[in-house]
Amino acid sequence: MTADTTTASAGTGDPALVSALADRARAAAHPRSPAASCSCPSAPLADRPDATVVRHDITVAKAHAPDTDPAALTLRVATAARHPGLLLPPLTPVTATLYDRLVTLWPYGAPVDPDDPDAAPWEAAATLLALLHRTPVPAGLPPMRGPVKAARALDRLRAALLTTSGRAAHPAARPVLEAWAALPAWARAQAPMPGPPALCHGDLHLGQLVRHPAPDGPWRLIDVDDLGAGVPAWDLARPAAWYACGLLPPDEWTRFLTAYRQAGGPAVPADGDPWTALDVPARALTVQTAALAVAKALAADRPLDEVEQAVVDACARMPSVPAGFPPASAPRSPSERA
Amino acid sequence: MQCPKCHAPMHTYNRNGVQIEQCSGCRGIFLDYGELEALTRLEAQWSQPAPPPPPAAPQAYPAAPPAPAWGAPHGGHGGHGHYGHHRHKSFGHMLFSS
């Protein structure tokens, strides 16, 4: 189900969990066959502290993070089941438990090829987000977890500063911490999110899109762990941050933003400057990305690479520009500031 | 401005000093008064053997969309991003990571 293959090698070192997940996925893939008669291979798609995901043939079993709230996960999975045109629907609404971890079952979907990010389905991603944001928020659904994840990235950076001997990346931590401190409280998960809440994905990146049925079905969003009610601009903020940091080419950003607007997405004004809405979430995602990059560099005692440095440099520029301030590159008349 | 044919937004380009508007939807081109004549003059200059035509100016590309003031400088006027003909490997990783 997940395409977050980049961290697949990190590992939680729990082969028993991987094996048990493979059994669950196999049973779901071949419900009428005895387990011993199947020769299809099982493959871990991701094995990291917050998720272990194993594929068997056409099914995928996911063990969620150890601290996952069962009631919240049930509501999130039910939301995916209710909107199969937007979110990959689960095979069953029931969550099981394996080794104290909540487990869900999903159909396999074909991910974006990590070796060919130029083929990224920017228009499909933007359209799915716009339609998701226009969907009424299901009653009782908890808040979208984007700001919480950003706060956790900063916790990880602080922990790395305390516990690692890495020196090469140490000076980079300060602008990241300062940019974080300058964010509004809601973006740091210290206050409720402002504005009318929309149904949000909460953790959009290119690993969160799959074609279902594989290999060439329509694109769907996956990974409902952070799904919830909140500020919809957060879901646009990773591509926005990548563009702002000079990493995502302008034409790809324009394709994404244009498709979102054409699908009637409510996160940004229909025309005019989108950064009035994007500024704070894009700052937060930039800081989150920088914090994780510096934490990893500290742990490995290596310098930042060019891309990581670009994200840290953006953090260093932030305090001089008030949050939410209209960008210098696109001055607007007072009448446009609705 | 909006395309008179399909109503998609039109973007302004500079072709050898001539401002032209091209539709982002149907790719149709709108020329202001006198611009067709200006292009015809340029064509006549191009067909003469000398002097050689100047190389295409970098500002012939469409302007980058707005970015926040804390962002990196984007293409066009001296600054450039970290993208290029080949996407940076580290950014390829970032695209797929939480």
Instruction: Determine the CATH superfamily of the largest domain in chain A.
Output: Aminoglycoside phosphotransferase (APH), C-terminal lobe
Helix content bin of chain B:
10-25%
Order of helices and strands of chain B: EEEHH
Tell how many strands the DSSP assignment of chain B holds: 3
Number of strands of chain A: 10
- Helix- and strand-based class of chain B? alpha+beta
The CATH class of the largest domain in chain A is Alpha Beta
Strand content of chain B: 5-15%
Q: Main β-sheet of chain A: number of strands, strand sense, barrel status? A: 5 strands, antiparallel
C-alpha-based Rg of chain A, rounded: 20 Å
Counting helices, strands and paired strands, the structural category of chain A is alpha+beta
* Order of strands across the main sheet of chain B: 1-2-3
Overall, the morphology of chain B is: elongated
Indicate the mean pLDDT of chain B: 69
- Classify the fold: give the CATH topology of the largest domain in chain A: Aminoglycoside 3'-phosphotransferase, Chain: A, domain 2
